[in-house]
Design a protein that fits this description.
heterodimer; A: 358 residues; ABC transporter involved in vitamin B12 uptake, BtuC; B: 251 residues; alpha/beta; Rossmann fold; 6-stranded mixed β-sheet; 8 helices
């Protein structure tokens, strides 16, 4: 062995540290801008409706309720606020659920909707509406959301445990999710076929997804799940980012890939199933929210995670505004509008930024 | 100084014991060990076993280290990645595993130093998905280095690099091993590079260790005929480097 005459290489000195810091500041600015946009969207959502108020009135109603009329106060706080907040919370929850599904399954198509979780929830809800048979012993008023939740959770856990089997690839998991979508859609059709006319219309309305079902208890439960999930994901931020480099690479960094996957999937199963059981099928947010965050912030989870929260919340909040703006006095189910609003925006983002889309 | 000794080490892949009977003399900090053998001999499996990613019988004796789980760093053979991360982010990620969110200047300075040494600063803010195979391999080397391990396991780190880069990277690893007292195990197919850079050579074939020792004691015409199935000679070039000259496929 004789390596003494070999020179050590020296690259050109580039201030990587300065550039990295500048890029980090830019990402924080983007997150701040998204937060401002979300606040604005919520304000518009509160102002918009059959009775339109100015943003100044909304701000007064929020921060000094005594300064506005009782009617404005009631409309803003009791009627519009639950819907506006539910849009934000559900959008955030579904988007984060989709983001982490895409991360741990290494698949851009993974989301609560594409993996059959929403379809399972729809079937559970339909079962509750048509048969009034609870899957858990609960009060009559809770049969539909609880049934939806149980089915959604079962579907998520089924996907998770199959994905843990030796030899199962991430592609297999996505195919399995697609199979679940078809299975639950068929079961849903079966239940619909047997349903009375009144029950059928309820089922169809439920599956369209609607924020008008929002109530404060539902909001608090969804928010609680989100607030429990986010710190757990944040704690694993470096590990989750490393998993996107591949299982072997993440393991070589010392990440316990199996454990992080299991923990993430369990949290995701709650994040995906709780909102769906309350508001019905809202398909697009869980798929697109994370893609928007990824394209503008990259996949470092320290930015990708809050980015997904804000992208999902903003997307559904804007959709909530659009859903009541198409025909004055009519609020369209948000599940229909989400895709119509999101698709053109999403396509334009992809085409403008093909390289960073996945 | 750190020392590593493998004691009748084996590795299970699934339920099958695919590698067994790997024993080495104590490998000392500062040494480069070339792990050689034909395709599917068990080199990657051995590395995964040493890195703790696979289970198996036998023991790994690592002494004089205070780095715990971070003492051993493994660079996998597969360096492909489609994550939307820049090169810089992916190297930072390797260094920050298990740490807090905040990134201090010392971390960034060290990353800058490693990137400059590997001559990859021009691609620092390029997305991983836009890199060539060779660039990905250099980034992977950087990811392994910034973890500042005592033992580096590098699975074919130069297989996608041009000749110039191969020599650059191997000489850099040689210098790093000497300067930092690291033990560097490199799985490599190029026996001439193994002879040039390694202090010891570990030969594996069919999941079993065939030899471990000084390069010229392991890489011999008899071994090349028996393990690789070629007729070959080992001769010194004009600059006194040992070279394997292959005459043809063994009859």
């Amino acid at each position: 062995m004789a390596a003494a005459d070999i020179t050590i290489l020296t690259g050109a000195a580039v201030d990587g540290r300065g550039e990295y810091r500048a890029r980090t500041r830019r990402k924080l600015l983007i997150l701040a801008a998204m937060s401002v946009a979300l606040c604005l969207s919520i304000a518009v959502d509160l102002a918009w409706g059959p009775a339109r108020y100015g943003l100044d009135q909304v701000v007064l109603a929020l921060f000094n309720p005594e300064a506005v009329s009782a009617q404005v106060r009631t409309v803003v706080w009791d009627i519009r606020m639950p819907v506006a907040v539910m849009a934000v919370v559900v959008g955030a929850a579904l988007s984060v659920a989709g983001a982490q599904m895409q991360t741990i399954l290494a698949n851009p198509l993974a989301s609560p909707f594409t993996l059959g979780i929403s379809a399972a929830a729809s079937f559970g809800a339909a079962l509750g509406i048509v048969t009034t048979v609870p899957l858990l012993p609960v009060a009559a008023g809770l049969i539909v959301p609880v049934n939806a939740f149980i089915m959604a959770l079962s579907a998520t856990l089924f996907i998770h445990f199959v994905s843990q089997a030796r030899g199962v690839t991430v592609q297999t998991v996505v195919l399995l999710g697609i199979a679940l979508v078809f299975t639950f859609n068929a079961l849903l059709a079966f239940v619909q076929y047997l349903a009375s006319e009144q029950a059928l219309s309820q089922v169809v309305f439920w599956t369209m997804g609607s924020l008008t079902k929002a109530t404060w208890p539902k909001i608090w439960i969804t928010l609680a799940v989100l607030l429990i999930a986010l710190p757990l994901f944040a704690r694993n931020a470096w590990a989750l980012t490393a998993i996107r480099l591949g299982e072997d690479k993440a393991a070589s960094f010392g990440v316990n890939v199996r454990y992080v996957r299991l923990e993430t999937m369990l949290i995701v199963s709650l994040l995906a199933s709780v909102p769906v059981s309350f508001v019905g099928t809202i398909g697009f947010v869980g798929l697109v929210g994370p893609h928007i965050a990824r394209m503008i912030l990259g996949e470092d989870q320290r930015f990708f995670l809050p980015g997904s929260v804000l992208a999902g919340a903003l997307l559904l909040s804007v959709t909530s505004i659009v859903s009541k703006s198409i025909i004055p006095g009519v609020v369209f189910p948000i599940g229909i509008i989400t895709a119509l609003v999101g698709v053109p925006f999403f396509i334009s983002l992809i085409l403008a930024n093909v390289r960073r889309s996945w | 100084m750190v020392a590593l000794q493998l004691d009748d080490l084996g590795a299970y892949y699934g339920k099958k014991l695919t590698v067994s009977g790997i024993s080495t003399p104590p490998l000392q900090g500062g040494e480069i060990v070339a792990v050689i053998g034909p395709n599917a001999a068990g080199k990657s499996t051995l590395f995964k076993r040493i890195a703790g990613l696979l289970k198996g019988p036998g023991g790994i004796r690592l002494t004089e280290t205070d780095k715990g789980k971070k003492a051993i760093s493994y660079m996998p053979q597969d360096t492909s990645a489609n994550a939307v991360l820049t090169v810089y982010e992916s190297i930072l990620l390797a260094r920050k595993q298990g740490s807090a969110w905040s990134v201090d200047d010392a971390d960034l300075r060290f990353i800058d130093h490693v990137m400059q040494a590997l001559n990859i600063t021009p691609i620092a803010f390029r997305d991983l998905g836009a890199l060539s195979g060779g660039q990905r391999q250099l980034v992977s080397v950087a990811q392994t280095l910034v973890r500042e391990p005592d033992v580096m396991l590098m699975d074919e780190p130069t297989s996608a690099l041009d000749l110039h880069r191969q020599v650059e990277v191997l000489s850099f690893m040689h210098a790093q091993a000497r300067q930092k007292g690291m033990i560097v195990l490199i799985a490599i197919h190029d026996l001439n590079q193994a002879l040039r850079f390694a202090d010891k050579v570990l030969l594996i074939a069919d999941g079993r260790m065939r030899a471990c020792g000084d390069p010229l004691d392991v890489v011999t015409p008899a071994m090349l005929r028996q393990v690789y199935g070629v007729d070959a000679r080992i001769e010194k070039c004009s600059r006194q480097f040992d070279h394997v000259i292959v005459d043809g496929v063994a009859a």
